[in-house]
Design a protein that fits this description.
Number of helices of chain A: 10
Largest interface: A-B, 47 and 47 residues
Oligomer: homodimer
Radius of gyration of chain A: 19 Å
Number of strands of chain A: 0
Chain lengths: 186, 186
DNA sequence: GGCAAAAGTCAACAGCTGTTGGCATATGCT
DNA sequence: AGCATATGCCAACAGCTGTTGACTTTTGCC
């Protein structure tokens, strides 16, 4: 409790940054606009976070660790993953920040790969499937494609789809990507 | 053949614009850099295209019409769509331009919706499936998610996947989105 | 060759950007 | 109380952006 005041404005800056980055992407979100949202001077942002890049890194920072899905049978892992990611996306806007900026920002791309590939692949490896990297990639394509249309591009039927229906459609897709034998290699 | 010289530089500008927009997105691609690539003066870009927005609109302009898939049985339409979109993506970089910029540019978003929803939905409607909008949306999530990882975020196993394997994995997914009966509505 | 129009060049503008240093104010300790 | 320190604000910088207008060169027609 050494410094309480500064912590509050630090948090205000971070919250404003997340919102702006998530809504407008990296380039359009200006330090001035973020500072205005947080009702402080732009210079404060620099004092606390050093640079725009570092502020962004802080805004996109969050716990990426997947829970341990080791004891879940492979046949129902698809459904579990859909529910988990959906809850993740809707909990806060860190992932939206990441997706919106990953398209132009290299740091964001790498963190995205980290989450979807580096995190998912070991989980699958624990289930002893073959070519886990490919399967993790396939799962990522479906999950991220869904998130893109639902949260960024906002296609009406996808935006309004209730969680249960999302699971109904996407669950079996993921399950297939996890269980279907790989095509024979040449 | 009234003005040949100008047509050539017009085309050079457009080509450079497509490359820059596709590689860096709307904001990072500057008129000055595009002009430099085309080896002309930035003022020429303005003379020929009026503004950056209009140049972008021209760069993202292309024929979005899907061929007539009316006589293809619904069961194999998934596979056909995968092959068609894959060929489309790889033919030129208009779609990459669109995807990279759709995340921050409203014009690009609308054109994206136009392609994937407005174009795909009538095609499905012709096959007399129920809730064509939802099905078109689901197909879009899988296709665009795949494109995102393959062409923008560049996840290794997805980038290197040969076309036949893409069809093997994604084809049945789309087919299911097109043929599976909708969940009962509450 | 002479000349109008097209094509291209140059320099500058106004506005916005991230970033910096100096200065005022409030805070908290002794 | 007094004072060091943390917190905040202001004004300005250098650089880049899209865009503009005046100027020069080239082209094509009579």
């Amino acid at each position: 409790m050494a410094e309480k005041k500064s912590d509050r404005t630090r948090a205000a800056i971070l919250a404003a940054a997340r919102e702006r980055f998530g809504a407008e992407g990296y380039e359009r979100a200006t330090i001035r606009s973020i500072a205005a949202d947080a009702a402080i001077d732009p210079a404060m942002v620099m004092r606390y976070y050093g640079s725009k890049e570092k502020l962004f890194a802080a805004a996109a920072e969050f716990d990426v660790r997947l829970p341990d899905f080791g004891d879940i049978p492979l046949e129902s892992l698809g459904e579990v993953l859909v529910r988990h990611f959906l809850a993740r996306w809707e909990a806060d806007d860190s992932l939206r920040v990441l997706l919106r900026t990953a398209v132009t920002n290299e740091v964001a791309v790498q963190r995205m790969r980290e989450i979807f590939a580096a995190q998912l692949e070991p989980t699958l490896r624990r289930h002893a499937v073959d070519s886990p990297a490919v399967r993790a990639g396939l799962v990522s394509t479906q999950m991220l494609g869904f998130a893109l249309w639902r949260y960024i591009l906002e296609l009406p039927p996808i935006v309004t789809m209730p969680a249960d229906e999302v699971v109904f459609w996407l669950g079996p897709t993921l399950t297939r990507y996890l269980t279907e034998p790989s095509p024979s290699q040449v």
